[in-house]
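Two folds, back to back.
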Amino acid sequence: MQNNIVQLIIEKLETKEEISPFLFLWTQIDKVNIEVLNLSLDLCEKLWINKNFLFKFENPEWKIKVKDIKQFLEKAFITPSFKAQIFIIENISKMTEESANSCLKIFEEPPFWNIIFLTSESESSILDTILSRCTIINLIKDNTFEINQAYYNMIDDYIRNINHDLASYIFKEKLEKDNYINLLKNLIIYLKEKLVFLDLIEQINEDINWIQKNNLLPKYVVDKYMIKLKNY
C-alpha cells in the first residue's frame, strides 16, 4: 500500500485495477465533506481530470432516495474522456435500505476509471454489505489522543521537508517513554487530518500498545517511523 490515498489511486489507475470505494468516517460530517472535496480536487489536478468529471451528490432531504442515487451513478458506466472520474456521495448513512442495495453492484465491481468517495459520521446505519465493499478511513479521533501543538508542528515541518527540528529534538533531548508515546499519538492525529501515510496508522497504534505493555524501546519505534516517512 502506498503512503497516501492519492498515490494508491494513481497506481491502480496505471494498472487498470478496480478501485474500491473509500468510506471516510468522522463525527464532524461537514469537515470530512470539505476534506474529501479537497482530496478530490487534488486528484483532478494531479491526474489532469477536468473538474466537470468530479460529481458530488449532496442530498438536501432527510433520506437518499433510490431514484436519485441511481440517476447520479448512471455516469459511472460511461467511459470518461479523461483518465478517471470522481464521485462523492456525502453522508451515506442517509441512504434507505433500497438505496443502499441499489449501489451494491457499482461498489463491488466499479469500472476501473471510477473513483468513489463516501462520507458518514459513523458506521452505524450503514449496511454491512456496503461496509464490506469499502476501504474504510476512520478519521474519528481517539479521545485519549490530545494534540500537542509543538509536536504537531514539528511533525508537519518534518514531513513537508521545511526543517529537521523534529530529528534534532529526538536526538538531543532526554525523552521519557511518555514523551515518545505522545509524539506517536500526535503523528496519528496528523496523518488522519492530512490524509497521508494512512497505511501506517494501524501499525503505529500497535507499536504504542507494545511500548505501553511490553517495554518496547520507544526511541527505536520513533526512529523507525522517521525513516519510513522519509523513504516513501
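---
second:
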Amino acid sequence: MKNFLLAVFVGIALISLLLPACRHELGQLPFGPIDPTDTIVIPPPPPPDPVDTSGVPCSPDTVYFQNQILPLLVSNCAMSACHDVQSHQEGIILTNYTNIRQKVVPFNASQSKIYKSIIDTDPGDRMPRPPAPAFTPEQKNLVKKWIEQGALNNVCNESYGQCDTMNITYTAYLQPLLASKCVGCHGVTNPGGGIKLTSYAEVKASAQSGKLYGSIAWLYGFKLMPQSGAQLSSCQISKVKAWVDSGMPQ
C-alpha cells in the first residue's frame, strides 16, 4: 500500500512539473493559441500592371490576329463540345494561331475553310453550329479582310501612346468589345453561368453586381473571363472600370 501511494505521489509531482512546460511551449507556437472568433482575412490582389503604351499602334486599315480574330474565334467556336482542345470536333482546334492558320489560305478567303464555314448558309455546315447565332456581316468581313491581308499572326497595342478612359459608353466601346470577346459564351443560346451580355440592360446588370469587372480583372473570388482566352489588356480593363465608375452610360 505504501508503495502504491508513493507511486501516486511521484506521478502527481511529475504532472505538475510538466504542465507549465507544456503551456510555455504552446505559447511559443508561431500562430499562438487559436481564437474561435477570429476571421481569416484574405489580402486583396495586387493592383494591375501599369498600362503598357509601347509596341505597335493599331491601324484602322489592318486586321490584327491577336486583338481581333483570335478572341472572335475563341469566343464563338472554341467552346466546350466544339473546337476547344478537349472537344476538337472533326479534329479542328481553334484556340491558337498555329491551328487556325492550317484552315486558311493566305490572301484567298474563298479557298479558306474557316471563312467558307462562317459564310455557309446551310445550318448543318455553317460555323458556329445552330442554335448558336451566325457571325454578323461585320464579323465575316473582319475574318475575310484578315485572310486577304495574309493571315498574319500580328498584334497591336490598343493603348499605344496613352489609354484614354474618358467618355466611355456602352454603344461605342462596351458593345463591340463584349461582342468580340464574350458574347460567344454569354449569348442568347445557353449562356455561360446563366449570364447574358447581349444588351445594354444585361451588361449593366452584370456591372452593377460587380461580376463584369471582377471577372475581366481576374479578381479573387470571381470566375476568370474570357474563360478560354487571354486576359483583356490593362487598357481595356481600365476602360470598363471607367465606364462603370461613370454610371454606365449607354
